[in-house]
Amino acid sequence: MGTITIGLDPNIVQVGPLLLTWHGLFTALAILSAIWLASRELARKGIVIPNFDLVAILTVLGGVVGARLFFVLDHLSEYLRQPWRILAITEGGLAVYGGIIGGTLTAAFLLWRQRVPIGPVADAVAPGLLLAQGIGRIGCLINGDAWGGPCTCLVCSGVAASVPAEGLGYCPFALRYTNPKALLPPELLGVPTHPYPIYDMAVNFLVLAVLWRLRRRGLPDGSLFALYWLLYGIGRFLVSFVRQEAIWFLGLQQAQVVALTTALMGLVALLWLLRRRTPATAPARS
């Protein structure tokens, strides 16, 4: 119980116009880890994708564009005032769901063009996506661009005077950002906040553990990816209640609306895939 203070500068080093940030570093590590794990799973399944390197690069680009687009839409009023910042991705600001959707649509199109079955590839990629999402959250944890709401648990915070009255209540432990360059709102600087990035990281690794156990169980092609959308969607919806973001629809944040939508899509797809499995394709009983 208590507060974890994060005072690291979000920027690691700058040489001329080139800026290396913690967010950029862990985003790069996340992408490399996803490609590495996906390539291992593809090899295990005996799947060969023509021009794999090009497909991987274009999929990553599609994911980055989608991630930035979703983040900008979620903070539209801010970027309308400063439109030149839309391309400043080194500041942080990549929405996970935008990356998932942008990357998925890009990869699906490229695989369709090459007539590569999408279902088995999606199953091979799903664990890598979860690993990448978990690693990427480390950058968010350092720079504060995915912040939780203020925590009013005085046992955790120990600084009652600085906790806003509209805080979100009890938390098992809190994060407090002290570096002026942190990317959370200025009014939250030095204020104990819910450890949202850690919660989301935990969701990713828990879902990864489930998928890793099921990947050899002979499920219909596409089932693992559908289960990924379902389980991560449920987890993301729940942990987002401790975020401090603008309400988007029916009292929910953008991420929660998208999470519910993708979870429902995952559930429908999973049920459909399991129901259409014929006895001939079902795994033999031992």
Automatic annotation (TrEMBL):
One GO term describing the cellular component = plasma membrane
What is its subcellular localisation? Cell membrane
Q: Which HAMAP family match?
A: Lgt (MF_01147)
- Which PANTHER family does the record cross-reference, listed alphabetically? PHOSPHATIDYLGLYCEROL--PROLIPOPROTEIN DIACYLGLYCERYL TRANSFERASE, PROLIPOPROTEIN DIACYLGLYCERYL TRANSFERASE
Q: Which Pfam families match?
A: LGT
**EC number from the UniProt entry:** 2.5.1.145
Q: Which InterPro entries match?
A: Lgt
State the annotated membrane topology for this chain.
Multi-pass membrane protein
Transmembrane stretches, by residue range?
A: 20-39, 51-73, 93-112, 226-243, 255-274
Query: What pathway is it annotated to?
Result: Protein modification; lipoprotein biosynthesis (diacylglyceryl transfer)
Among its keywords, does the record have Nucleus? Answer: no
Q: Report the protein name in the record.
A: Phosphatidylglycerol--prolipoprotein diacylglyceryl transferase
Q: Entry's NCBIfam families? A: lgt
Tell me which residues bind a 1,2-diacyl-sn-glycero-3-phospho-(1'-sn-glycerol): R137
